[in-house]
Amino acid sequence: MLSLRSKQVIIAVAFPLAFMLLVAGELHFANKMAKLQMDIARLREEQTLYRLQISRIASEVEAYKDALSELSKYPIKLSKDGASFYSNVESALVRNNMSVTDIRPAGAGEGVVAVRVEFTGNYSSVLGAIKEWRQIKEVARLKSITILPDKEGTVRGVAILESPLRR
């Protein structure tokens, strides 16, 4: 059994030691709590930023869907083959009283048909043919056109038109 003096020494050492351990533990947990609160604040800030990004992306998706819906109202028809495209290009010139002096394939990439057409006629007829080319049922792009004066009251020109082919 311990003497009274030994018990007093143990109590005198144990209580301050326990108190110091409690204070050290409280400081440790207070620091940990402060770090966690900073992490929570940073995560809330990131959450707000992500919500804003999600909202922006959602509105872009809605705009994309609306655009697709609008585009679906305008069906795109692709050329079946080069011959039908050449025929449509030449027919537009003939209907506008133009004379086709040469029509031949033009260099085009894979999956694209291109035609080079040389023509003569009056200027207003050229404009009428361009208008008809814009209204061809298949997708068509007027890649280039050169119009030069010819004999009195007429012009001569060269146009290159392209259209993607159906696969």
Could you characterize what this model shows?
This protein has 167 residues and is α+β, with helices and mostly antiparallel strands. Helices cover 56% and strands 22% of the residues. The chain has 3 helices and 4 strands. It has helices at 4-71, 82-95, 123-134, and strands at 99-105, 112-121, 141-149, 155-164. The protein has a 4-stranded antiparallel sheet. Helix 2 (82-95) packs antiparallel against helix 3. The model has no long low-confidence stretch (mean pLDDT 87).
Element string (H = helix, E = strand): HHEEHEE
Number of β-strand runs: 4
Mean pLDDT, as a whole number?
Answer: 87
Total of helices: 3
Major sheet summary line: 4 strands, antiparallel
The assigned structural class equals alpha+beta
Radius of gyration: 41 Å
Helix content: 55-70%
Strand content: 15-25%
Strand order of the largest sheet: 1-2-4-3
- Runs in which pLDDT lies below 50 for 5 or more consecutive residues are none
Q: Which descriptor suits the 3D outline?
A: rod-shaped
- Distance from N terminus to C terminus (CA atoms, Å) equals 102 Å
